[in-house]
Amino acid sequence: MTMRRTLFALAGGAVLLSAVGVALAQREYKSGWVWPEPPVVTPAPVDKPGAPPSDATVLFDGTAESLAKNFKNGDKWVVADGVATVKATDIESKDSFGDVQIHVEFATPEKVDPKQTGQGRGNSGVYIMGRYEVQILDSYENKTYFDGQCASLYKQQPPMVNVCRKPGEWQTYDIAFEAPRFAEDGKVLKPAVCTVVHNGVFVQNHFELKGGTYYDQPAKYVKHAEKAPFRLQNHGNPMKFRNIWVRELKPIVGTPPAEKKDGDKKDGE
Q1: How many Å is the Cα radius of gyration of the chain?
Q2: Going by C-beta distance under 8 Å and a sequence separation of 6 or more, which residues neighbour residue 44?
Q3: 77-122: pLDDT as tens digits
Q4: What is the mean pLDDT of the chain?
Q5: Is residue 48 part of a domain?
Q6: pLDDT tens digit string along 181-210?
Q7: Domain holding 127: CATH number?
Q8: Which of 89, 107, 171, 198 has the smallest number of CB atoms closer than 10 Å to its CB?
Q9: Mapping DSSP to helix (H, G, I), strand (E, B) and coil, where does residue 74 land?
Q10: Within 13 A of 125's CA, how many CA atoms are on the CB side?
Q11: Under 8 Å between Cβ of 48 and 237
């Protein structure tokens, strides 16, 4: 065999071996899990960002009737032109939630009293399960303690960044909350976890809460029900709210692969 033929033969063999190697490397991995098909949900129209998806439960659609129907004391707030303004009291959802996505749109007062600073300016909050607060505050050029500014998990974790809009401008929260799990004796099996997207920006990323958020004591867990209402706070400021909806979070549950017994053939055998 000439040198040229030898080189061609070696090259051909290398190509064949390479092709076999690629074929082996590209063999599809299959986990063996059997998954149900995820349900189809229609998202908000592209021209209506923040509108509820098709599987959401709308708690405030801009009407006084919806606020009174879905919130305790909802009839106490003032509703006009599709907007609810805080007055006199907190309001609390009549339904209870565990793992949940909460969408809330809010605006701090447009007219700012120069005497109101820090926690006295545009103050409210979303109290998930009545005890875990995502702070609402006018934190636009308004200094306060960092774990009490807007989008903080009150007294536990400041937001990663401050993305507050100017007073009077509409802002959005999308909160993903995983409820804590407790043993019968009250021991925490799994802490609560909270993610917050403020004005489209992640500001809390899967933060594990240390317990309830308190003003006058350290965080601690007290055993409670698997589901509970959430509350919107009256802190004495005429805060505005609109477009409030929730989605229960239900992970897809699959069937794990059957355990292989000794002697069972492996894939490819």
Answers
A1: 27
A2: 50, 51, 52, 53
A3: 999 999 999 999 999 999 999 999 999 999 999 988 888 899 989 9
A4: 91
A5: no
A6: 999 999 999 999 999 999 999 999 999 999
A7: 2.60.120.560
A8: 89
A9: helix
A10: 22
A11: no
Residue 99: give the domain boundaries: 57-248
Asked if the structure places residue 9 within a domain, the reply is: no
Q: pLDDT band for position 22 (50/70/90)?
A: low
Q: Cα dihedral angle (155, 89, 92, 220), rounded to 10 degrees?
A: 30
Q: Which two tokens stand for residue 138?
A: 């006018």
Euclidean distance between CA atoms 164 and 122, whole angstroms: 12
Tell me the backbone φ, ψ of residue 193, rounded to 5 degrees: -130, 135
d(CA 219, CA 209): 8
Number of domains in the chain: 1
Cα 174 from Cα 156, distance rounded (Å): 19
Q: What is the mean pLDDT of residues 142-165?
A: 98
Whether the Cβ atoms of residue 70 and residue 95 lie closer than 8 Å to each other: yes
List C-alpha distances in Å: 108 to 68, 78, 120, 160, 237. 22, 15, 11, 21, 8
Q: Does 191 reside within a domain?
A: yes
Which is it for strands 124-128 and 83-85: parallel, antiparallel or unpaired?
unpaired
Instruction: Report yes or no: 59 and 244 within 8 Å, Cβ to Cβ.
Output: yes
Structure-token pair, residue 163: 């993305």
Question: What is the predicted pLDDT for the residue at 3?
Answer: 57
pTM, two decimal places: 0.86
